[in-house]
Amino acid sequence: MDGNQHRLHRGGTSATGQMASEDFAARLATRPASRLSETVGALVASLNRLADELGLTASEFHAATDFLTEVGHYADSRRQEWVLLADVLGLSSHIEDLNHRRPAGATPNTIAGPFYRADVPEMPAGANISRDGKGEPLSVSGRVVGLSGEPLAGALVEVWQANGDGK
Question: What's the burial of 47, exposed, middle or buried (CB within 10 Å: 0-12/13-18/19+)?
């Protein structure tokens, strides 16, 4: 937007947006039912409602698609920027909270993120996890305790961090 015009429309999806959503749903209906189809169908309908609500212009739409394209250019087999974007948007934490409820006072759920590697060697407490020596050293300490403050024996703590190059 140019800052001077705010085109917020209330009241549902336009006929064009509704038709686009229905056409997409009809195409999905030709495929076997799946949770992915249900999710993508709901996403399409929500995007059409959002475009109507915002009164999205062609230039705003192109700016959004340019942003998403740029995010995609930074992703590769070792770096998943889509996961990072979902985390920045708060979606990852929300999905974790929906699927793994925790009692009040518990540490919030998090996902492993785009830089986590399950195949790294186990290292002793206090070891330096830097593989290339790049970046500033950081010392981290902490305790793993239950909701009442009692230490939890046998807790596994996994720590990882990318260097300044994201590796």
Answer: middle
pTM: 0.62
Alpha-carbon distance 50 to 47, whole Å?
5
Q: How far apart are the first and last CA of the chain?
A: 36
Scan for tokens 């799946």, then name that residue: 34
Long-range contacts of 60-68 (CB under 8 A, 24+ apart): 60/1
The tens digit of pLDDT for each residue in 114-156 reads: 667 788 888 888 888 888 888 888 888 888 999 999 999 998 8
- Could you state, in order of their start, the residue ranges of all structural domains in the chain? 15-56
Distance CA 142, CA 145 (A): 10
Which pLDDT tens digit goes with each residue over 39-95?
999 999 999 999 999 999 999 999 999 999 999 998 887 778 888 888 889 898 889
- 66 CA to centre of own chain: 18
Report which of 90, 7, 86, 113 is spatially closest to residue 52, judged by C-alpha positions: 7
Q: How far is CA 33 from the centre of its chain?
A: 25
